[in-house]
Automatic annotation (TrEMBL), chain A:
NCBIfam families: PRK09645.1, sigma70-ECF. Belongs to the sigma-70 factor family. ECF subfamily. Residues 26-93, 125-174 form the RNA polymerase sigma-70 region domain. It comes from Actinophytocola gossypii. It holds the Pfam family Sigma70_r4. Signal peptide: none annotated. Keywords: DNA-binding, Sigma factor, Transcription, Transcription regulation. InterPro entries: RNA_pol_sigma-70-like, RNA_pol_sigma-70_dom, RNA_pol_sigma70_r2, RNA_pol_sigma70_r4, RNA_pol_sigma_r2, RNA_pol_sigma_r3/r4-like, WH-like_DNA-bd_sf. This is Sigma-70 family RNA polymerase sigma factor.
TrEMBL record, chain B:
It is found in: Membrane. This is Zf-HC2 domain-containing protein. Residues 8-38 form the Putative zinc-finger domain. Coiled coil: none annotated. It comes from Actinophytocola gossypii. Keywords: Membrane, Transcription, Transcription regulation, Transmembrane, Transmembrane helix. PANTHER family: ANTI-SIGMA-K FACTOR RSKA (PTHR37461:SF1). It is a single-pass membrane protein.
Length: 184, 228
């Protein structure tokens, strides 16, 4: 036992909790989006709220990542939420055969790394569109509205919706590069 | 019926599937005869794959409905992580479990569940074993680690707590010079997330040259790093 020395190499930091404001502002800005997404994926509001809380916690832990991330903050948060849900589902699926905590999962099995990049970069690219172009794209594609419905919602002519959608798609295409390349 | 003349501005809405059926048929008919439109359309259709990476919920804004309970829960977690109230970490218990880990390692290397009862030391650690502990203030993860010297390599025993269930992790041995080596990888189960986990690994690093031992998630987030 003489050779055993227990050393606390890192002092724990003071009790103040910096970054609480970050969590609040992320919640105010992205909470609805995150919760709706998590509810759809889990089918369970309580589980979804837990996922959102865990996501906000991770955002707080990785504030540097969040700030340095080239894609959008929203994309980062949604991706983290999805990863939490996926990993929990996998953990549940694996558990029946899991007797001990063995070291047996190759890192290569983490298969959503590419999607992670894509979701964040696509949203990041959309954020760089002009607000007019972005709005048309969101209404047409993500809200499933027709050209005429989009025209009514945005208060513009149907012809304008069409031409903006064309320019939006072209601009996005130019930003994201060729398919198959993972944009960085 | 190629009734649509060459009007590329329709291609965006067409690629997005947003035209009404009549227009869509007309554009389709035109595109089938127009190589230039075909080329552009092919690029736009590829783009849909990228757009599909983003869920429609990405375009909702503001806080969730239904009050701030969710926010309060998140803040509570943040505070709990920032000031972890860890029980059962008195030096005596720590020493006992470290010795136990060594006993398990020397006894053939089969992992067993985490023991909480102090057990009499079966064998002392090999001479030259370096023991260290660290807690990452940001993640709240804690690792106690023993680095046992071998001839030209090291045996690593680690006890890890505070890594959330579901995380996919690697145990890295970082040499003073050179790239970190993976001494093991695993996914944190619910039990291990709640109660901690014991790991063993080996790395081809000279015993005197280990700079640190780390837990890093497979997507690159460092959970805890313990200098040796």
């Amino acid at each position: 036992m003489a050779s055993v020395a227990i050393t606390g190499r890192r002092a724990r930091r003071a009790k103040q909790v910096p970054g609480e404001e970050l969590v609040r502002s992320l919640y105010e800005e992205h909470g609805r989006s995150l919760l709706a997404y998590a509810i759809r994926l889990t089918g369970d509001r309580a589980a979804a709220e837990d996922v959102v809380q865990e996501t906000l916690l991770r955002a707080w832990k990785h504030a540097d990542d969040l700030r340095d991330n080239v894609g959008s903050v929203r994309g980062w948060l949604l991706t983290v939420a999805r990863n939490i849900i996926t990993d929990r589902a996998r953990a549940r699926a694996v558990r029946p055969t899991e007797v001990n905590q063995e070291i047996d999962v190759p890192a290569a099995q983490r298969d959503h790394a590419d999607d992670v990049v894509n979701a964040m970069t696509v949203l990041g690219a959309m954020d760089r569109l002009s607000p007019d172009h972005r709005a048309v794209l969101v209404e047409l594609y993500y809200r499933g509205r027709t050209v005429n419905e989009t025209a009514a919602v945005l208060g513009i002519a149907p012809g304008t919706v069409k031409s903006r959608s064309y320019h939006a798609v072209r601009a996005l295409r130019a930003t994201l590069g060729r398919p198959g390349e993972v944009p960085r | 019926m190629s009734s649509v003349e060459h009007d590329r501005s329709l291609l965006g809405a067409y690629a997005l599937g947003s035209l009404d059926p009549g227009e869509e048929r007309a554009v389709h008919a035109h595109v089938s005869t127009c190589p230039e439109c075909q080329r552009e359309l092919a690029e736009f259709v590829d783009l849909r794959h990228a757009l599909d990476q983003v869920p429609p919920e990405a375009f909702l804004d503001g806080p969730p409905d239904g009050g701030d309970l969710l926010l309060r829960g998140a803040l509570n977690r943040v505070r709990a992580e920032a000031a972890p109230a860890r029980r059962g970490w008195s030096p005596g218990l720590v020493a006992a479990s470290v010795v136990l880990a060594a006993a398990v390692a020397l006894g053939g290397g089969v992992l067993i569940g985490r023991e909480t009862a102090p057990t009499p030391p079966a064998e002392a650690l090999p001479a030259g074993t370096v023991t260290a502990e660290g807690t990452d203030p940001a993640t709240g993860a804690t690792m106690r680690v023993e680095v046992e010297p071998r001839a030209g390599w090291v045996w690593v025993n680690a006890e890890v707590e505070g890594v959330p269930a579901g995380e996919r992790c690697e145990l890295l041995v970082v040499p003073e010079d050179g790239e970190p080596l993976v001494a093991g990888s695993w996914v944190v189960s619910d039990e291990a997330g709640a109660e901690g986990l014991r790991l063993e690994g080996t790395a081809l690093v000279e015993p005197g040259e280990v700079e640190s031992v780390e837990i890093v998630t497979t997507d690159g987030r460092r959970m805890v790093s313990v200098p040796i």
